[in-house]
Design a protein that fits this description.
Aspartate Aminotransferase, domain 1; four-stranded antiparallel β-sheet; 14 helices; 13 strands; binds pyridoxal-5'-phosphate
Length: about 350
């Protein structure tokens, strides 16, 4: 097996660059739980400003951002409307239900993007028999929707219906900066209708850890209580927050490269016999594709690729795969991956 793995399984595969590591090593630190870590405070101010919110809170993971935001807007037994493809519904251990006793109404959008009408249909009536609908969660970009970007019109449609029914809104912006770079829409515009929103630092931005949740001062004060409750409060966290500060300064614009590499990858894969993929559907850094169901399964192909030093995940169905471009993937890596995929598929 080749000594370097071309890891297209996820943009979480990024390792901190030497410059990012230097920023981390040199970070000013203090006790984060006392609000005395200057680097954490700086990162929080940067994200609050970026998202046009009053305040922000540094958290150990994106999962905790979604979990805490869900609790901030609800009481036990309340219901959240989200898409059935969403990360929160599928990949967070059922935490909103498991930790805070929240109920979920999963709607079926188009590539994870749902409409105001679907929200209206999902809202429970006033009967005391039903859970109380309180919150709508949008994911942008939509991971399992193939990195799809919500347009401002699509967001506004949902916001209007939610507001008309007195619901709160939260955006899972794990890859919001990918949406920003792909669309040219400012982050604060994307989240203008939201009560809370967050960005992940450990995906395409290339940090080892962390997410930052933003919202009103009151909501973030409450979020801080839940951060402590969940054991998410840290001490000299400036060491890791410095990676976030560095990433926001140096790793946002370059996401365009990942998007261009993803399109290049999609075009290359689409040309291979047995691969079913429309390259025109690729909007950001995520490339889902299907294999001809009469041929090898996704797991078989994934294993064969690994033997040649390329990792592409088998995700979902028997013949469905996902490749994600990121900071540690060059154009040459993409070309090599396509070449290997062709060898595997035609052999
Ligand atoms: C990765 C991801 C999360 C969870 O973030 P972690 O930092 O891995 O906990 C939530 N939502 C989406 C859309 C994600 O891609």
């Amino acid at each position: 097996m080749p000594d370097r793995l071309i890891d297209l399984s996820s943009d979480t595969a990024t390792k901190p660059t030497p410059e990012m590591r230097r920023a981390m090593a040199e970070a000013e630190v203090g006790d984060e739980q006392k609000g005395e870590d200057p680097t954490v405070n700086l990162l929080q101010e940067m994200v609050a400003d970026l998202l046009g919110m009053e305040a922000a809170l540094y958290l150990p993971s994106g999962t905790m951002c979604n979990l805490i935001a869900s609790r901030v807007h609800t009481r036990t037994g309340d219901e959240i409307i989200l898409d059935r493809l969403s990360n929160q519904y599928n990949y967070e251990g059922g935490s909103a239900a498991g930790v805070f006793g929240l109920s979920i109404m999963a709607v079926a959008g188009e590539r994870g993007i749902f409409t105001g009408a679907q929200v209206a249909d999902g809202i429970r009536g006033p009967s005391p028999h039903a859970p109380r609908t309180r919150l709508v969660v949008l994911e942008n970009t939509m991971n399992a929707g193939g990195g799809a970007v919500w347009s401002l019109d699509q967001i506004n449609d949902v916001v209007q219906v939610a507001r008309a029914h007195g619901l709160k809104l939260h955006m899972d912006g794990a890859r919001l900066m990918n949406a920003v770079v792909a669309s040219g829409v400012a982050a604060r515009e994307f989240v203008a209708g939201m009560d809370t929103a967050w960005i992940d630092l450990s995906k395409g931005l290339g940090c080892p850890v962390g997410g930052v949740l933003a919202g009103s001062r009151d909501d973030m004060a409450l979020a801080l209580r839940y951060k402590h409750l969940l054991g998410g409060a840290m001490r000299q966290a400036g060491i890791i927050a410095a990676a976030g500060v560095y990433a926001l300064q140096h790793h946002v614009e370059r996401l365009a490269e990942d998007h261009s590499n993803a399109r290049h990858l999609a075009r290359g894969l689409a040309d291979i016999p047995g691969v079913l993929l429309d390259p025109a559907t690729i909007e950001t850094n995520i490339v889902f594709f299907d294999l001809d169901p009469t041929g090898p399964t996704a797991v078989e192909v994934s294993n064969a690729l690994i033997a040649h030093g390329v990792r592409i995940g088998a995700t979902g169905g028997r013949h469905r795969m996902r490749a994600v471009t990121h900071l540690d993937i060059s154009r040459a890596d993409v070309e090599r991956a396509v070449e290997v995929m062709r060898t595997v598929m035609v052999s």
